Amino acid sequence: MGEEIAVGDQIEWYSDIDGRPVEPDDPEARTYTGIVDSVHRHRDDSRVVAYLVRCRGGVSGTYLSTVLPEHRPSVVDSGRQQDGSNE
């Protein structure tokens, strides 16, 4: 995961139905996408520990999901403007 994920980015990740990280080719894998609402970092070394992601569901409307680095999220569409700032 060489890319920096930021607030406003649309990301994609894979997990099983219970939310556990899985490989993309795992038969239990489901693809999820959402917009990053916040990035949470470890206080001591500033590594990312979680992303809070806004997702859309069918009948459930909008919900928040916690995505961990173990989910290996990737940026689908950057929410940043050309100059690198957020909207």
TrEMBL record:
Record-given protein name: Hypervirulence associated protein TUDOR domain-containing protein
Source organism phylogeny: Bacteria, Bacillati, Actinomycetota, Actinomycetes, Mycobacteriales
